[in-house]
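Session log. Operator J.P. requested a structure for one protein chain; no other inputs attached. Running the standard single-chain path with token output.
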Amino acid sequence: MRHQKLLAVAMVWLGVSAAVAQQTPARPKAAPPKASTATPFDKAALEDYVRHLFVWGSQIQVTVHDPKPSEELPGFREVVVSARAGQASQEDTFYVSQDGRRIFRGTVYDLSKSPFAADAAKLKTEQDASFGPPNAPVELVVFSDFQCGYCKEEATILRKNVASTFPDTVRVTFKDFPLEPIHPWAKPASIAGRCVLRQKANLFWEYHDWIFENQGVITTENLKDKFFEWSKGKALEPIQLAACYDNKATETEVARNQAEGRALAINSTPTMFVNARRLVGGVPWQQLKAIIDHEIEYKKAHPSADKCCEVTLPTPLNK
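Structure written below.
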């Protein structure tokens, strides 16, 4: 009898518990914690490693920029490291593995693009002095410094050989890149050259040749006098020329070229680009000629190399 009563009580209790359970909404299960997608990256460790790699002492200011996903190398992060000491600067790109332990430094190429596409996109020549046909298959851009001895040698090579050897196939463009920390009159000379270019573009190359020929006798103190002495008898308006030089009216144009050079990571002169192919330092004529010949033949064999991935309608107007 007692066992029957206990069984009845238990059945009543279970029934009440079930009713309560039906009336009380079930609590949602807690979501499992999300795994962190962040990967380790230690700026201080990378800076220390790069300083040791390049022997950069404490006198050199190093900045490790924030990493970003690499478009060229999916799965890697791209980190720019900048270094500066006075007016000198250098910038390098490192690719960092996802675990943050491995880095490499180099150039990534895309077979669907020119190997020089990145530099080509940064070269702007519309506002600079040039000689040669505008639509030449080879464009040679030279970043130069009027006080640089190696620039004088390269300028002589270019002026003596390019127009006579490649009259219809090469266009040469001059870019001002005065190295101010070591060449005190190079920037004023670039400003003067730009003043000539503003008035009479065809006289710029005469100025260019003259100042390189007289590089050994020009000083910071006598540059202005020698410049105006040279300008006498030229088709230049003297008052306008003097105002341009004295007011540094073309300084922003020189600075624009300098900024373009820094964006291209140029740190020495001369630096040339032959169809955006970078050539650092003086290049003997036979070597330069061989590179130009190669570019001409390459353009003949790849006439659509500069027009990749374009779809046009079949019309006689599309040539």
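Operator note: The longest strand covers residues 77-85.
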